[in-house]
Amino acid sequence: MNFIKKINIQILFAFVAGLLLFSACVDKNDWDVDKSYDRLFRPTNLTVTGITATTGDVNFVAIPGTDHYQFELSTDSLVFDNIVATFDTTVNSFTLDGLDGNTIYSLRVKAIPADASKDNSEWAGVYFKTRAEQIMETVGAGDILSNSATLRWEAGATVSNLVINDADGNEVENITITAEQKAAGELTVTGLSPETSYEALLMNGVKQRGSAGFTTYPQVPEAEYYIRLQAGDVLTQAMFDEITASTVTVTFPAGGFFTFAETLTLPAGVSFNFFGLPGDSKAILNLTQLELGATHDYVKFTNFDISGLVYDANGTPTGGANSYFINQSGETNTATLEFSNCLLHDFNNTPLRLKDSADKYIENFNIDNCLVYNIPDSYYVINVSASNHVIDNISITNSTFYNIGRLFLHNKSNSNSVLIADCTFDDIIAAGRYFFDYSSSYGPTNGFTLSNCIFGDTQDDTAKGIRFNRSPVVTNCYATSDFVLGGASISGLNSYSGASTDLFADPANGDFSIADELFDGKTSAGDPRWYFN
After folding, report:
1. What is the mean pLDDT of the segment spanning 108-120?
2. What is the mean pLDDT of residues 301-315?
3. Residue 314's pLDDT is what?
């Protein structure tokens, strides 16, 4: 046992001595070199910055001993299976151009040595995405209609088609761009829906070159000629004097303020639709005075705040008020004068007066779905007081009138008909004044119909009702206990035992919602906007 151990120790010493002797014969710095590692370092800190739709700034740290750098550009994410460009450069900072917008790219670089005995460096790579290209113009308000929109882009640009998506991103139309449209940089998309939001994507194959969002206008009345006003536009007489068409639609943006400090005269022979576009608030139309022309098939106002207040240049009320909206002195023969979904308020005298000696005839005068308020005991809201002044057919429907001194005067001539239906009246008729006054000699020859109305508080106990040469037909109409007439009573009104403050939610502040759920007419009488819910 000891013998074996001794031999093993001797062998170990001999092995160690041999190893030390071998080491002593080799130079400590004379190592063999693996030629596969005799290459340049790869470029470091490779970045692409300042990225646009078509360019990007390339930077990296230069490598000593490099003859040039070799690049590959691929449209994927660091896979380099779809190489679209290869190029060489001797600089370590430059701009890539000619890129496609909204595209994923990978860029890689390796250093090529000046010493041919050395190998190239390994690749260094970076991933980036270009911004969406934008060669489309913003869609102007004047380029939008209710069913179409004209889209514009950089004329002559390389494009193939326009994709029209709805607000949820669903494709609704894909339009191939013709050579003529491409050269002009313009295309009109038709067949769209009114009041609908769209996004247009301008494409070149699968590449997007631009986009533009827009919302079509509401369906506006058709006309031969359109005036599309924008916020900040100024009304002028010249704007109307230069009209040569026979039918005109003038649109006003929601919330816009439009004023004219002189009398605005409409040209004869032209029919007008003044149309306030829908929005959070109505366009304010503030005219010192409007004069109708000699003839019109129609003059209609839809969805306006027609205000008699005086405003400063910023659209802030100054505390004053204009006297009239229409104060007609010249001759006119107008088939239809209409106010729909409007506010008519705060005139010192009246929204409509026919005056002076010239003949005036309005065949149909309509107020529908309007709020009419704050008109003092100065003139009647509709004021006609000459034998050659006639408003033939009066229709007042689905509307609310409050703080009104007098409503209607037509006391020197007959008319054809009067319809007052589904209306709410409160705080009306000043001392000794009439609600409707034809005098005792005249009236509507084909009848006066009063239906589904509510009459609230009168301004004075001497207020008077309807005066004309016969009696109105009254159905489903109600009067509160504070509707008190001192003369010309209205027969056939149903009595409501409470006052207007019992029936309406907050009449002092213009809220005429039915507050009494026991009221028989809670869903059948008065302006429908106030029905009991």
Report:
1. 93
2. 91
3. 79
For the record, the structure tokens of 135 come out as 């060669």
The region of weakest confidence among 21-35, 375-389, 420-434, 485-499 is: 21-35
What's the CA gap between 451 and 528, in Å, rounded? Answer: 13
CA angle 522, 524, 529 (to 5 degrees): 75
Interatomic CA distance for residues 396 and 366, integer angstroms: 6
The pLDDT value given to residue 162: 98
Q: Calculate the average pLDDT of the chain.
A: 91
**Are 40-129 and 141-215 equal in CATH topology?**
yes
**Cβ atoms of 495 and 486 closer than 8 Å:** no
Cα separation, 137 vs 186, in Å, equals 10
> Which tokens hold the place of 436?
């409707």
* Torsion angle of the four alpha carbons 37, 43, 44, 45, in this order, in degrees rounded to the nearest 10: -160
Angle at 233 between CA 270 and CA 263, to 5 degrees: 50
3-state DSSP helix/strand/coil percent for the chain, to nearest 5?
A: 10, 45, 45
pLDDT tens, 13-38?
444 444 444 444 445 555 555 555 56
452 Cβ contact list (under 8 Å, min separation 6): 421, 422, 423, 475, 476, 477, 521, 524, 525, 526
C-alpha span between 287 and 172 (Å, rounded): 43
Asked whether residue 39 carries a pLDDT value surpassing 80, the answer given is no
Give the model's pLDDT for residue 313. Answer: 78
- Check: CB of residue 251 under 8 Å from CB of residue 217: yes
| Beta strand spans in 190-331 (E) | 197-204, 207-215, 225-228, 247-252, 257-265, 271-276, 283-291, 295-302, 304-307, 309-311, 317-321, 324-328
Q: 3-state DSSP call for residue 241?
A: helix
Question: At residue 126, does pLDDT exceed 60?
Answer: yes
Domain residues of the chain, as ranges?
40-129, 141-215, 225-530
Q: Is the dihedral of CA 71, 75, 80, 82 positive or negative?
A: negative
Give CA–CA dist 125/74, Å, rounded.
Answer: 11
In the CATH scheme, what is the code of domain 141-215?
2.60.40.10
Closest CA to 404 of 378, 422, 384, 365: 378
> Which class would CATH give 40-129?
mainly beta
